[in-house]
Amino acid sequence: MTKVLLFGMDGGEPSLVFEKWRDLLPNIKKLMENGSYARMNSTIPPNTIVAWNSMISGRDTSELGVFSYTYKTPSGETRLVSSQNLRCKVMWDIIGEYNKRSIGLFVPLSYPVHPIRGCLVSDFLTPDIESNCAYPESLKEKIKKLGNTEVFFDVVAGLAEHKHLDPEDLIKRAYLMTDMQFTLLKDLFHNEKWDFFMAVMLGTDRLQHMLWRHFDETHRRFIANSPYHDAIKNYYIYIDAKLGELLSALDDDTVIIVASDHGMIKQEGKININNWLIEQGYLVLHKDVDLSQKQRFSSSFINMEKTIAYGSGAYNARVFINKQIVGSRYPKISEEIIQKLKSIPDDKGNPLDTKVYKAEDIYKNTSDPNCPDLTVYFDDLRWASNPDLGLSGLYSWESAMGADSAGHSRQGFFVISGKKIKKKGMMPDIDICQVAPTVMKILQVPIPSDLKVKPLEVFTYGLFS
How far apart are the C-alpha atoms of 14 and 180, rounded to whole Å? Predict the structure, then answer.
């Protein structure tokens, strides 16, 4: 019976894999030459926890019920999301109903874990090893024996805390984390039964966010002669070698998928979205909010009786329009804000290629109170969004969380290879939601009737009918 290995590189950039470093990645290159590959349009927004779960469910962002790392409760509290916020089944839930076994490792938004037919180890949102991070729970003992459990789930505990590490420490931690994860991965890969095996490597994302300007000569903050110039490239080479260890142990009946949730793009700077909304008269804060203090933006700061719109989001901006205030003027106000956002120039007065997406144009479920009215890609994500306060003016190079030198781009990459996969080479762009029904077809599991996105046309005729 055919099996599927889905090997994920978080933030894997297609231009690096398909072009710049292709010959340095022999294992991925061989899969490309023997199968099919494409640039893959990520979710809107190309958010890590959103994109991976769209990949393994086939659902759009609004169907997942998750739009960002935080959400507002009905009482107005802001909380960190978890797997319990997901409103749809993902691959191990779906195929488990047909007696198929899965192993899911480090897949973003899998914490806390729940019982599945197989094994599940959670992701970088895991608070610590004593939490509900592994199923069956006996896997915790395997993890504890690997060494430093504080670095097992992420390079440092706490959301976005990696932004505060110096390059040397970041690199050291990325390799330590990955080595431990691969040790567990290979143990389960060889010793557990599985039909679907998925693992996501986080190190690519962490290193690229912080070290992109060390190798990209076009970056406005490029560091010439940096000792970390090759750090990202070396990690890609290392990950490709680790993948090779798995490929050498696979039989001919396994289909291999290597993919990323989104790509990466140099970050020119940040647009202080809430500063802009205040300046334009759309956002009014309570009088006691101290704008001179650098701090995370909170909805508690907003005077909702006078506010038309407020912003959130990091690499992309999310704009929420106060419908109770604007009422029937909503379409007009929405279009007005869109046009003004598109007219924002860069810090030198040059026009930006800004894209703004209306919720009703991209999502199936716009009634969710956490669904933004507008999703904004400043200069197609070359400029990020900063919702935080305490940084004066329209432009900044950091937020209250820290600074990046690269952000998420709209496209990740997708490679598929196996005995029953056509050698189509480079294909036209695909959509991230197509991966789930493609895997279901390979595993001969019925595709849910309400899942309208189609599997990829990459199969040898008749073998998966």
Answer: 26
Quick check: 181 and 152 in contact, CB under 8 A?
yes
Residue 121 domain-assigned? yes
Element (H, E) at 409: strand 406-409
Task: Give the predicted TM-score (pTM) of the model.
Answer: 0.96
Strands ordered across the beta sheet of 269-272: 383-386, 269-272, 395-396
Q: Which amino acid is at 461?
A: Y
- Both tokens of 419, joined, read 């005995």
89, 187: one domain:
yes
Condensed to tens digits (0 to 9), the pLDDT of residues 113-162 reads 999 999 999 999 999 999 999 999 999 999 999 989 999 999 998 877 88
Report angle CA 322, 323, 324 to the nearest 5 degrees.
Answer: 95
Dist CA 78 CA 94 (whole Å)? 30
Q: Please name which of 37, 18, 2, 88 lies closest in space to residue 417, comparing C-alpha atoms.
A: 37
Residue type, 42: S
pLDDT exceeds 80 at position 461: no
Rounded Cα distance, 347 and 394, in Å = 8
Q: Is residue 111 part of a domain?
A: yes
| Per-residue burial over 364-378, b = 16 or more CB atoms within 10 Å of its CB, e = otherwise | eeeebebbbbbbbbb
Domain count, the chain: 2
Name the nearest CA neighbour of 38 among 415, 411, 409: 415
- Convert the pLDDT of each residue in 73-108 to its tens digit: 888 788 999 999 999 999 999 999 999 999 999 999
Tokens at 192, concatenated: 């557990």
Mean pLDDT for 282-303 is: 92
Neighbours of 148 (CB within 10 A): 10
- Provide the residue count of the chain: 465
